[in-house]
Amino acid sequence: MKHYALILVTFLVFSCSADPKTYIEHINGYWEIEEVTLHNGEKKAYNYNDTIDYFEINDSLNGFRKKLKPNFSGTFETSKDVENIKLVLENDSLNIYYTTPFSKWKETVLLATKEQLKIVNQNKHVYLYKRYQPLDLD
Fold first, then answer.
1. pLDDT confidence of 67, banded at 50, 70, 90?
2. 29: enclosing H helix or E strand
């Protein structure tokens, strides 16, 4: 009987997933791609990024994402291009809906912590981001 109880507890622990609502507080900020896992399982590591993603979300779960290019001076270059976003909790998932003048698409947040962000797009490519840390040249 103890054996069955242990199996049941193990199953419950591993089947419980984090509440996607808790991801929202971690999305704001500067992120750089660490790795992409393609839909076929192939992985591509990003050892260097010349651009980073900046997410800004307000209390109504609306905001934007912008691509930034870090400078050695600690500032960023950017274009006027911006992707408007809306976070939506639906079907036990946190989805990001993007809108530009040219397109609309959706991505799903799989994980968001203080240090990592994991997003899957409609092509089933999984993007693993790490929190951006500026280069310390001193």
1. very high
2. strand 29-37
Choosing among 3.40.50.720, 3.20.20.70, 2.40.128.280, 1.20.1250.20, the CATH entry for 23-131 is: 2.40.128.280
Q: Check pLDDT > 80 for residue 12.
A: no
Q: What is the DSSP string of 62-118?
A: EEEEEEEEE-TTS-EEE-S--EEEEEEEETTEEEEEEE-SS-EEEEEEEEE-SSEEE
What confidence score (pLDDT) does residue 48 get? 87
Summarize the confidence of residues 111-115 as an average pLDDT: 97
Q: Furthest-apart CA pair in the chain: how many Å?
A: 65
